[in-house]
Amino acid sequence: MPRMRSARHEDAEVLARLTEMAGHGLPFHLWAEAAAAGETPLDVGRSRLEGEEGNFSYRNAWVIEVGGAVAAGLIGYRQPEPYSLDGIDTFPPVLQPLVRLEALAPGSWYVNVLAVLPEHRGKGLGSLLLADAERRAHEVGARSLSLIVASENPNALRLYERVGYRALARRPVVGFPWFHGGDWVLMTKPVETLAR
Prior knowledge:
Layout: E1 3-6, H1 12-22, H2 26-34, H3 41-49, E2 61-66, E3 69-78, H4 96-102, E4 109-116, H5 125-139, E5 144-150, H6 154-162, E6 166-172, E7 183-190
Parallel strand pairs: 4-5
Antiparallel strand pairs: 1-2, 2-3, 3-4, 5-7, 6-7
Helix pairs in contact: 1-3, 2-3
């Protein structure tokens, strides 16, 4: 029986793996650029997720366990409102289209990462995590939920559309190693559609 819980410090490594799956190679690319000598991209991702502060922390993550092991996870939080783009030109070019899309949904509850380990796909775990994200958005008074998905990921697009997300805007992916092409698509869902 699947069991959802808040992520713990010791979940940082599996959360980093889930982040890489959700990000289509972009997280490993960024982590590889930040890695010190002798450090792997996964080491960098795990270290960032072990942090106590900031959006990209295990404190903003929820996982589903199956048989006592993490099978899926979600990282999410409320976006700032207003959402400032000051300094965006200093961001790595590969991140700029994503940040510009995020800015189009200020104050939304943002699903930054949603992923299910391959052996657990097709069991409804992603839908369970999305339903929990909706509950959290409602609790903090967010007017909408938002997420960004690759246009080259039709399975995820179908899942999000099935649960009520709609495309709001898109920006071309800026090339990086393991580049998959296509666009980043911002999808949103109004909180008022939630069952009260």
